[in-house]
Amino acid sequence: MIKDMLNNCLTQKEVLVYYNANVTYQLLPIGINGFVFNYKGINNIIINNSLSYYKKRKTLLHELAHIELNHLCQTDKDLLALYIDKYEDEADKYIKFLLE
């Protein structure tokens, strides 16, 4: 889905509808670009409103990668906490791969 959006085959809105996701822009602490969480079946993407347009776009792609890679479907939250860096790296590498 992300690749289709990057290739202009799908709009951002279509991808968000497919993943049942909402994007909210709000002021976040320095150093936090964004995050994603699922609540009652809706994927909520929060992006730091103080970022540049391009950084917001990159952050959105990163958070969509977490959804596409099923990082939010972890059943053991303690296990997720142990592997948070792994999931962050995996999302970054996935986006980099799609952009090549």
Walk me through what this model shows.
This protein has 100 residues and is α+β, with helices and mostly antiparallel strands. It has a single domain, classed as Zincin-like (2-Layer Sandwich). Helix content is 50%, strand content 19%. It contains 5 helices and 3 strands. A 3-stranded mixed beta sheet has the order 1-3-2. A hairpin with a 2-residue loop joins β2 and β3. α3 crosses α5. The longest helix is centred in the middle third of the chain and has 16 residues. The protein starts with a helix and ends with a helix. The model has no long low-confidence stretch (mean pLDDT 90).
Q: How many runs of DSSP E, i.e. beta strands?
A: 3
Radius of gyration: 13 Å
Report the order of strands and helices: HHEEEHHH
CATH architecture: 2-Layer Sandwich
Spatial strand sequence of the major β-sheet: 1-3-2
* Fraction of residues in H or I helices: 40-55%
CATH topology: Zincin-like
> What count of helical segments does DSSP give?
5
Beta-strand portion reads: 15-25%
Mean pLDDT: 90
Instruction: Give the domain tally.
Output: 1
| Spans where pLDDT lies below 50 across 5 or more residues | none
Q: Termini, distance in Å?
A: 16 Å
Outline type: globular
CATH class equals: Alpha Beta
Instruction: Tell me about the largest β-sheet.
Output: 3 strands, mixed
Based on the model shown, name its key terms.
single chain; 100 residues; alpha+beta; Zincin-like; three-stranded mixed sheet; 5 helices; 50% helix
Short description:
The chain is of the alpha+beta class and 100 residues long.
